[in-house]
């Protein structure tokens, strides 16, 4: 007997966060996670999902984070903000330029690229925006800091390269050690809004690495080293400095560098890394852990999961 998608979503919504994340990790990564004593990168990201740093919400909010970016690396690295209306109206639409990007501030994937405003309409964008604003992004992957972000639409200038295409995305995984050592892994995403996006990892010297993450296939030919790579990495290092780990997303059309977003829980801790050894290697580089509550103060969903299942560690024995 098949179960409807609506019923599946309803049943999924009944799961406590810890159990939901553990089952998602088992399904996508292939093993049950050790939630109380994490070892791998993904397991430590799961802990962040359950016990987020209080700073995460404001710095994940794509509008509120702009103040941190301006103070840290300068206003020139902010994509020009065209509008952030409380309610999107026909007057707002009329005032927008011929090309722009429509986004929402409270999650991933809320992006509409508009190259030519005459090819869309206010009604189309309003309907899309309303669907975004109704989406509880916390409910999708149980990243708890998203509960504290008030959904809002905003419009930015559209970044394009000289050929008219949207520039590649530099997703820079930044690790900062207690010793002060810094290490970055660059995921270069090309053709992001086309049918076949590709993702390639490079080190800080732009040597291609045999690493894959999630669903991105690698390119057949390495991308030439960006002329402003050092400046890109300098921006990422400055933005990541207050944290032991964060992914810094940047764009570099022409000779400019623009900020995209900060991501503290990439893939919600359920993104498979290939080879699997990278999950363990990155886990060793992520040192600090959230302060876990005692049994007396633990959230009910975490307590019930740990008590009934003797923690996800038991599945590893």
Provide structural commentary:
- By secondary structure, this protein is an alpha+beta fold.
- It has 11 helices and 12 strands.
- The strands form 3 sheets. It has a 6-stranded antiparallel β-sheet, covered by helices on one side.
- A hairpin with a 6-residue loop joins strand 2 (100-104) and strand 3 (111-114).
- Helix 3 (41-50) packs across helix 10.
- The chain is globular, with a radius of gyration of 20 Å.
- The two termini are 34 Å apart.
Mean pLDDT comes to 90
CA-atom Rg in angstroms: 20 Å
What structural class is derived from the secondary structure elements? alpha+beta
Task: Describe the largest sheet.
Answer: 6 strands, antiparallel
Low-confidence stretches: 295-317
* Topology as a string of helices (H) and strands (E): HHHHHEHEEHHEEEEEEHEEEHH
How would you sum up the global shape?
globular
Distance between the termini: 34 Å
How many helices does DSSP assign? 11
User: How much β-strand is present in the residues?
Assistant: 15-25%
């Amino acid at each position: 007997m098949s179960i409807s998608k609506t019923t599946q979503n309803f049943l999924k919504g009944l799961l406590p966060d810890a159990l939901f994340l553990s089952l998602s990790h088992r399904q996508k990564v292939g093993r049950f996670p050790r939630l109380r004593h994490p070892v791998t990168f993904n397991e430590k990201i799961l802990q962040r999902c359950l016990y987020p740093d209080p700073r995460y919400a404001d710095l994940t909010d794509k509008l509120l984070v702009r103040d941190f970016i301006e103070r840290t690396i300068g206003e020139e690295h902010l994509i020009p903000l065209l509008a952030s209306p409380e309610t999107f109206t026909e007057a707002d639409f009329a005032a927008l330029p011929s090309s722009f990007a429509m986004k929402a501030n409270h999650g991933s994937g809320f992006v509409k690229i508009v190259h030519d405003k005459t090819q869309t309409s206010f009604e189309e964008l309003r309907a899309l925006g309303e669907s975004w604003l109704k989406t509880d992004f916390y409910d999708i992957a149980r990243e708890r800091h998203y509960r504290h972000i008030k959904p809002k639409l905003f419009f930015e200038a559209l970044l394009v390269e000289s050929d008219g295409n949207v520039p590649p995305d530099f997703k820079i995984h930044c690790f900062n050690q207690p010793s002060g050592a810094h290490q970055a892994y660059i995921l270069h995403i090309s053709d992001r809004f086309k049918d076949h996006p590709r993702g390639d990892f490079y080190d800080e010297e732009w040597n291609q690495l045999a690493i894959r993450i999630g669903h991105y296939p690698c390119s057949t030919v390495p991308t030439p080293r960006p002329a402003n790579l050092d400046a890109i990495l300098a921006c990422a290092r400055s933005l990541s400095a207050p944290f032991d780990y964060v992914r810094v997303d940047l764009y570099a059309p022409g000779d400019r560098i623009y900020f995209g977003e900060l991501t503290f829980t990439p893939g919600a801790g359920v993104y498979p890394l290939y080879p699997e050894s990278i999950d363990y290697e990155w886990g060793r580089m992520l040192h600090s852990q959230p302060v876990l509550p005692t049994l007396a103060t633990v959230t009910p969903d975490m307590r019930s999961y740990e008590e009934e299942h003797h923690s996800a560690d038991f599945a590893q024995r």
